[in-house]
């Protein structure tokens, strides 16, 4: 793609103003704390709603938060493509697989230890993945 004089002028203006630009000269519109916060906050919200005894339909709000966080992550300029794929796999796909495993195979009174293990796996994946994303973001 050819660069026009207007593109060059905008880039020079942004550099002089100290505005961070990412790949291809695009400006970052969402701060990196937003996707990481939505992803980590979704697990905390789901946990609090479960403790409060909220119906399953209300828990979908936490899932929606996590999906929005992953979408913002994928459109963000603060991470490289491989970091985005890893972040989505660790914070969305792996916890969903653990939850499906629990709902299909591990439900019952004799499997409380396995349920606790599945919850810990989800906690580590979601919050740990969001923390990893925060630490690996591009600065500046």
Automatic annotation (TrEMBL):
Protein name per its UniProtKB record: Uncharacterized protein
Residues that span the membrane, as ranges: 33-52, 58-78, 85-102, 114-135
Organism: Streptomyces koyangensis
Domain of life of the organism encoding this protein: Bacteria
Sorted UniProt keywords: Membrane, Transmembrane, Transmembrane helix
